[in-house]
Specification:
This protein is mainly alpha-helical. About 70% of the residues lie in helices and about 5% in strands. The chain has twelve helices and four strands, in the order βααβααββαααααααα. Strands 1-2 form a two-stranded parallel sheet. The longest helix has 25 residues. Pfam families: FCD (PF07729), GntR (PF00392). It comes from Parasphingopyxis lamellibrachiae.
Length: about 250
Amino acid sequence: MATTFINIESDTKLNTLSEFIKKRSPEKSVADALADIFRKRIMDGDYLPGARLVEADLTKLYGVSRGPVREAIRRLAAEGLVDAEKHRSPMVRGVDQQKFGRMFEVRAILEAYSAKLAAQKVNSAHRKWITQEKEKWEKFTYCDDIDTFVSANTEFHDHILVIADHDVLNEQTRQLAIPGYKAVFKPLLRETEMRRSSLQHVEILQAILDGKADKAERLMRKHVEASGVRLTKKFSADLFDRRLHELEKLQAD
């Protein structure tokens, strides 16, 4: 796979992201905000596997000093999203088919536990979100909007981790994030798969809402394992490289 570099001139999200850094919440440092941005852009496929995160370019791009950029990249390296190489700019990590499948296997265990904890810790504030989220996914069973589905799916899993309120669990789950996942695999999603997943989300949310911890754990594990099996079967090195090449061309245009 060819090594790519982030193109400052073609970055159309610069103004929005710079504002995000300036308007960050008081408890968040610049490094926190940058780590959030870099993480999201890696997962969305804006920074593709193989891309070099050049420190000097990033400081210019976001209008910040090198210290926060360095710290943000260090955190992403700890999460397994980038590879830090001596005397070279860090590179967004790729993934092969075997590792892809194994990451889903482990993630299924961790997310199942997060659903169990969420059911045990659910409070009135959580119940309001869960009720609204459940209604949203009930409507999604008739939705064919892939972009909206992918974003909502990420929010669903992330928010259950928030309810679980377990810092180590959250940290370990983050380390199983797959770089470029959204951008590379979004075209593989089909309406039937989205609807099946939506119905499973409704069942998981209902179990959490009812405080049925064991049921929530079982449903979440089955849900993540099934998704992993389906996507791993579709995964191939050729497919991954082809999708990355297509995305690189789009970014260059």
